[in-house]
Amino acid sequence: MEICCWRKTRAARRPGGISPTRLMKCTENAGSIFGHIFGLRKGYKDMLNKKTVDDLKDLKGKKVLVRCDFNVPLKNGVITDETRIVAALPTIQKLIGEGAKVILCSHLGKVKNGPNEGESLAPVAVRLSEKLGKDVVFVSDYNVTGEAADKAVAAMGDGDVVLLQNTRFRGKEETKNGEEFSKELAALADDYVCDAFGSSHRAHASVEGVTKCISAKGGVNAVGYLMQKEIDFLGNAVENPVRPFVAILGGAKVADKLNVISNLLEKCDTLIIGGGMAFTFLKAQGKGVGDSLVDDSKLDYCKEMMDKANKLGKKLLLPIDTTIAAAFPDPIDGPVEVQVVSSDAIPDNMQGLDIGPKTAELYGEAVKSAKTVVWNGPMGVFENPVLAKGTIAVAKALAETEATTIIGGGDSAAAMNQLGFADKVSHISTGGGASLEFLEGKVLPGVAAADDKE
Ligand code: AMP
């Protein structure tokens, strides 16, 4: 019996550095052992035990539809960050290597005003072809599926790659039209692989609907390597952490993270709160918070969470000192005059915009003592260099520890990247919204839709 050890190895720091088979083994063992012991919620537990691309058999000549996340930033038609394309390569290369006919699809942008060349996946096809070192046939048809796609797929040889047009060009994927779209996508392939973690919290045609149609014709639905890595780190590290497990939450509003706070309190040993959301907690403790960001409708909720922490015997850390200013900087990265005060001495006409140095030290110490750390949300208005010190201190603490460190996407991921710490943490999630829902303990439709391992 093998129990996965969540130590940060050099391999774990490399994207795709852990062998997917080993990851799956960890998932399998950890899921079954801890699932039985602690009785995890069924739907959530099932997400930790999905078929992966390694479970697809006899791939030579098989048509496999892969939902990728090619939602890359574009400036004047040029890709400015290819991270998502690079992250998709291991799954695509595996399928090519096995002789499958690889049909790729993805969304790009919000497509608010209907299909348009500015949001076409054409630049992705070019970059992907360079990365793979082979042709990628791009189906530019705005209908995505249909005659042009059928023709391109019919002409594929073993190991060939076709990229379909932006799935959002078909309109809202979760609408009734989505059913028709799901069927048409599934008709192109024998098996389906979802590798778009960033979209997995949406019950869209290309993420969830298509899987029902693939199952109906006897095909297999699996998750790709990228998705498996996310499931493994976010799911298993939170469900079966090596302790002490410290969770750090920041960002603007308490309301955005209600369920994350509640769920993580149950799982972690210490919950650290920073950023704008800390002031609602401080006010709930009866402290004056001046003009700081406060959500008065959530004061009772914060009291409830502090009670919950007490009852569960968990530590809940709040800022002991705060960096304050007379006004929010405008522009956000413009000059700002600050002072540091104790968190119970914020003057009426001032607002807290970052954690203070004593708090940064306290939070850093908590990170040092941890074996697993999950972080989501900045400690202050990190867009401004004067107010980024708390966020940088936490980022540094994470970069320096040997613990398993997981960054839940969004602003904290951006901060780690900007500071050059990306390769010093175990995992940076590729999906902000999806990773938050995972941390909330929600079942993600795109993950749940994959077939369970036998
Ligand atoms: P979120 O999207 O909830 O993760 O929040 C991120 C935003 O929270 C960033 O744009 C920060 O500037 C902002 N933020 C962090 N701390 C504070 C604060 N003390 N007051 C106001 N905004 C903050």
Number of domains: 2
CATH C-level class of the largest domain is Alpha Beta
Provide the spatial order of strands within the biggest beta sheet. Answer: 5-6-4-1-7-8
Based on CA atoms alone, the radius of gyration comes out at 23 Å
Terminal Cα separation, in Å? Answer: 18 Å
Distinct small molecules? adenosine monophosphate
Structural class: alpha/beta
The tally of strands reads 17
Largest sheet: 6 strands, parallel
Could you give me the name of the CATH homologous superfamily of the largest domain? Phosphoglycerate kinase, N-terminal domain
Outline type: elongated
DSSP helix fraction: 25-40%
Give me the number of helical elements.
17
Q: Quick check: average pLDDT?
A: 89
Write the CATH fold name of the largest domain.
Answer: Rossmann fold
Please characterize this protein's 3D structure.
It is built from 17 helices and 17 strands. With 454 residues, the chain is α/β, with parallel strands linked by helices. It has 2 domains: 6-40 and 240-432, Phosphoglycerate kinase, N-terminal domain (Rossmann fold); 53-223, 3-Layer(aba) Sandwich (Rossmann fold), CATH 3.40.50. The protein has a 6-stranded parallel β-sheet, with helices on both faces. Helix 8 links the parallel strand 7 and strand 8 (221-223). Helix 2 (20-38) packs parallel to helix 9, helix 7 packs across helix 8 and helix 10 (258-267) crosses helix 16 (432-440). The relative contact order is 0.13. The structure holds adenosine monophosphate (AMP). Residues 251-253, 256, 275-276, 293, 352-353, 377-378, 380-381, 383, 410-411 line the site of adenosine monophosphate.
